Structures are given as C-alpha cells and as structure tokens.
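[[Encoded backbone]]
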Amino acid sequence: DPTRPTTNKNSFVAGGYRLLKVDTLDNRSVSDKILEELKGKISSSDGDTVVFSDFRHGIFSRETIPTLVEAIPEGVFRVGDSQVASRWGNILDFSGFDLITPNEKEARFALGDQDTVIRPLGSELYRQARCKTLILKMGERGLITFRAPVTESPERRQFFVMDSFAGHVVDAVGSGDALLAYATLTMKATGNEVIASILGNLAAGVECEKDGNIPVSPDDVRRKLKDIESHANYS
C-alpha cells in the first residue's frame, strides 16, 4: 500500500514520495591497502581517459592525490572535477590535467577570491591550474571556456562564453556531471574545445529539465539540438 508510511535506515516514504533521506559515511582517508589497490587499478587500466571526481569523502586527500595522479599511465586523457558543497575539495589539486570543469564557487574557493569578476577569475585559475582546457560553469549564465593560445592562429581567442541551453529548469542536480561526461568524451574524440563546450552545455541543459539526477542519453542531446535549430529557423 503506497499510502502507508514505511521507514528504513535511509528514508521515510509516504504516499510513494521520499520525504527524508539520511546518508551516513566516513570521511576519513582510505587505508594504505585500499590506496594501493586503487593505484594498481588506475595504472593497469587500458582506458584512454581517466576522470577524477573529488567529493572529498575519503578517496581524495592531500596524501592520496599525488599517488593516484602519478598512477595514471602516460598518454591518458586526464580530467579533474571537485566540489565544495558539503566538503572542501580543491580543483587546483588536479593541476596539469587536460580538462577541469569547476563551477564559479569552486573556482573562488580554490583561489580564495570572492571579489574578482568572472573572466579574470577564470584566467587566473587557468594559469594556476596549468591545464589544457578549463570549462568554468556559471549556472544560469552558461559557461566560459579557457584554452591555450595558438601561435599559428593569433585570431583565435583564448576564451569564449556560451549561454545556457536550459529551457524550463526543473532540477539542476546532475547538470554539472552531464557537462563533465559529454565534454570529456567530445574532447577525447575531437580535441575541439568549442564542440566539447557546446555538447557539454547541451547535456547540462537537458539535465536541468529533468526531475532528479537522471542520465542524459545521446538521443536527449540530439533532440535538444534539434529544438534549438528549429527555434533559430535553421535549415
């Protein structure tokens, strides 16, 4: 009977809706044994991309990050992400990576800067992070992407801004993950920061229109792109 309240250690459900969820976790750093196991799995992986998504719940710390980064095989595309919503991750812990995707709050936390406007803030983070590409998420304002200058193409700007593709925002949870996933795959496939930013931004827009953190499929992104083309009278 879905109308009858039921309980378990994680949630209280009434009428089929979750009213409360209680998460219990241990934020202490993983043991040396587990760290060695993680290091071995990373170093022996035959994947061409490694994503470190840091929620600071024990896997990543000042002690473990250098070891885990060092374990990444040569030539593998390296992606870093962190969050400061519930713990204090620092995106600068992943300096030298191929792609990082912090939001504005995470960028300000990493630099200890509450006041600088977004473009110079991103430029300074890009400089300190020594990454190849920085996609700085700005919520409803979209994103700004920073990249290295190209001597052969002096007309190419080192940064570009892109508005959000979200239409009717229902729930923004998971939008950053969607952007991270699609931008990573696109960068690996094309090496093009513009295409990666567009597809990542489209995926984030799709996620914002879903209730809950629901995976974004390629068909979802294609439909979103087709809707945008239609509204722009694209032919």
